[in-house]
Amino acid sequence: MEPSELKRSKDSPNSDESTRRSSFPDEVLERVLSLLKSHRDRSSVSLVCKDWYNAERWSRTHVFIGNCYSVSPEIVARRFPKIRSVTLKGKPRFSDFNLVPENWGADIHAWLVVFAAKYPFLEELRLKRMAISDESLEFLAVSFPNFKALSLLSCDGFSTNGLAAIATHCKNLTELDIQENGIDDKGGSWLSCFPESFTSLEVLNFANLSSDINFDALERLVGRCKSMRVLKLNRSVSLEQLQRLLVNAPQLAELGTGSFSEELTFCQYVELESALSNCLNMHTLYGLWDAKGIYLPALYPVCTHLTFLNLSYAALRSDELAKLLAHCPRLKRLWVLDTVEDKGLEAVGLNCPLLEELRVFPADPFDEEIIHGVTEAVCGCVFWLPETPLCSLFLSSND
Q1: CATH number for the domain including 133?
Q2: Of 63, 288, 313, 359, which has the most beta carbons under 10 Å away?
Q3: Where is the F-box domain (predicted)?
């Protein structure tokens, strides 16, 4: 046996099979593997042989790390040299219920320092239950010149000053998604930090911020970003302001409204209805804080195209929900509060033949004397229509 063959036999128990599978030129193999999107498939591919391992290593541009303590950033950078997108999870799920002590860990800064040295071309960072400071956000903003997407879900440790640093320095930003985070909200002036020449934003979500925002800055930003497809507002945005934003962004596919309870004149109501009817691409609707039934008909024109309706912040009654769902023939996902009661869920069965997912949340999970809600009786009489392809049902109660 030749020395090269001996080496190959030691590298792999099936050397002939390994040689036959890895006979592609490296460039071809890397190109083929770059088309694989599933993390599981890519991991399986890397186990075939050393050539495939190396090709997968060099062709991977996104890495998902489900536990930030399962691997060090140095090991990640050594294994994958061309990463442009990172998804990283930190604290365990039960931290959402205040079952993890303060300063538990999961700090992002050490990761950012390594990424700045190894991945100066990083474009996307998606964090869940991580601790991130304003200093870390500023470091992120100035260290990656082509940075495009930041998504923070259930993170803490930062304030709107950190968002201001992102807005100021990330000239190519396309996504800023701030959802369910523990933020020190110091006001809405951070929106004015986007340069007047900035036009690239496609996704903007600040729904969980509590303070009033600089609406003039927001209106100018939305008007400049003609490719914006997702806009989720906090409850400080009024109906009249919502109408002004929609006039500038009829291309939206996902909308999170602000408060839906402002007193409108008849002319203002007509203008809001007209603005919504022009949003022909919209498939997701969210928000509707403090919704008043008198204004819900303004939504009817846009409901025709909806596939996802999230009413988990809107305490609608059963009759209000029934009237709304009568205009939602394409709905596939629906989230509601239990204020709709059993009659509201019966309306779901009558009006949503394509429904695949239904979630019902308690309006007040800590009120043991609550007099409204849904009962187990609905399960026997609501899922009903044989042609309804319901595959996910989540009923959360006060028990």
Answers
A1: 3.80.10.10
A2: 288
A3: 24-65
Residue 39 has pLDDT above 80, yes or no: no
Q: Has residue 394 been placed in a domain?
A: no
Q: Could you give the residue ranges of the DSSP H alpha helices within the chain?
A: 3-11, 15-21, 26-33, 39-45, 50-59, 73-79, 109-118, 134-143, 160-169, 215-224, 239-248, 266-277, 300-303, 318-325, 341-351, 377-381
365: closest CA among 320, 325, 312? 312
pLDDT above 90 for 278:
yes
DSSP 176-236: EEEES-EEE---BGGGGGS-TT-----EEE-TT--S-B-HHHHHHHHHH-TT--EEE--TT
Question: Residue 30 falls within a domain, yes or no?
Answer: no
* Structural domain range at position 174: 86-383
- Residue 158, classified by CB atoms within 10 Å of its CB into exposed (0-12), middle (13-18) or buried (19+), is buried
pLDDT tens for 342-357 read 888 889 988 999 999 9
Q: In this structure, are strands 62-65 and 156-159 parallel, antiparallel, or unpaired?
A: unpaired
pLDDT band for position 10 (50/70/90)? very low
Tell me the C-alpha distance between 142 and 173, whole Å. 13
Q: What is the dihedral of CA 119, 121, 127, 133, to 10 degrees?
A: 80
DSSP state of 260: S
Tokens read off for 91? 């604290």
Has residue 379 got a pLDDT over 70? no
SS3 for 22? coil
Positive or negative, the CA dihedral 228, 233, 237, 240 is: positive
How many structural domains comprise the chain? 1
Residue 112 lies inside a defined structural domain of this protein? yes
Do 330 and 302 touch, CB atoms closer than 8 A? no
> Using an 8 Å Cβ cutoff, are 338 and 374 in contact?
yes
Which residue is listed with tokens 């392809």?
A: 389
Q: Which of 165, 166, 203, 162 is nearest to 181 (CA)?
A: 162
CA distances from 152 to 79, 166, 206, 218 (A): 25, 13, 10, 20
Burial profile 69-86: b = 16 or more Cβ within 10 angstroms, e = fewer: eeeebeebbeebeebbbb
Tell me the residue type at 322: A
